[in-house]
Amino acid sequence: MAETVLRSADTEYEPNSEIFYNPAETLSYNFKVNMVCSMRGGGKTFGTLVMLINRYKRYGEQFIYLRRTHEEIKECKDKLFDDIKEKGVFPDDELRCEGKTLLFNNEVMGGVQSLSKAYQVKSVAWPKVRWILFDEFIIEDTKISHYLPNEPMKLEGYMETIGRLRKLRVILLGNMATKANPYFDYYKMWPKANTKFQRNAKRGVLLHMWDSEAFRAMKKQTDMAKLIEGTAYGDYMLGNSPFMDNDTFIGKPEGFLDYVVTYKFNGLEMGQWYNRKEGVFYISSQSDPSTKKVFAFDTDSHGPNLIFIRQMRNHPNIKQLRWAFENGLLRFENLTIKNNMYDLLNVV
């Protein structure tokens, strides 16, 4: 199939589209991987789905709607097109999901899949797929959901499986709950103040921090906005500020240090160090490769090995870790390590 350019008609869907997210600006840079982050409710999923449906309708380009886990797919797949139908964007066409297949007037428009089950599609050909939409790629509540071990690499492996030798473009959509996530770390691209776009041309990766003054002004008039105004969550909902991020207990290891133990969790390897003079423990990205004390909490699939964690709760090192945390004597090298250790401490 000949490559077709993105046209404005592919993304237009309503008169007030300047208020809500429109993928045309993101995709105008022609990058392979496009990470789009914004405040909640800006229409990222809606606008991107409209564009993808138009691309299929006009050019026959199929797409995959991707989520992290099978549970997420089960929860959303049958409601995927409800908002589009309600707004009457495609009044003469039938949109539905049947099983794991997306249908447009009974024709196969694409599929829904989960990254955690990506290994099951390695032998399945999708020769007409040109797009992958990975929705909710930033986790907002790590107490109930976890990133897959080495998740960005799993996504790239999935892209290779689907795309083979064809041109494929991937759109990752997320609410700006935190800057500490494996995708920003993997691509070494983090949100910066007053910076709308960041580009890694060598790797073909774009980070788009989408914002809309018109949308923010409209949202501030709602009862919910008045309720949360002045709170950290309000700053997130109304100002695109990561509500999960703060610098409390952030600190790099310093002074004379003893090595304690290595933790492997959520795809990270983290070392615990102790400063005897200060009586403070540090969790760092630097670990001692010679140590025999290693706690590997991950499974090979998705999420922590809860059985092993329960068995280790009374181990002296784990009890020491909890004690240091509860007494304010635990420091974290950066936000990524802090958020992951908070996840671990919630279950040990």
Keywords:
348 residues, alpha/beta, Rossmann fold, 5-stranded mixed β-sheet, 29% helix, 12 helices
Question: What strand order characterises the main sheet?
Answer: 3-4-5-2-6-7-1-9-8
Q: What ranges have pLDDT less than 50 throughout 5 or more consecutive residues?
A: none
Tell me the radius of gyration.
22 Å
Q: Label the overall shape.
A: globular
Residues in helix, %: 25-40%
Q: Please, how many helices? A: 12
Mean pLDDT, all residues: 84
The CATH architecture of the largest domain can be named as 3-Layer(aba) Sandwich
Extended strand count: 14
What report would you give on this structure?
With 348 residues, the protein is an alpha/beta fold. The protein folds into two domains: 8-239, P-loop containing nucleotide triphosphate hydrolases (Rossmann fold, 3-Layer(aba) Sandwich), CATH 3.40.50.300; 257-345, no CATH class. The chain contains twelve helices and 14 strands. The mean pLDDT is 84.
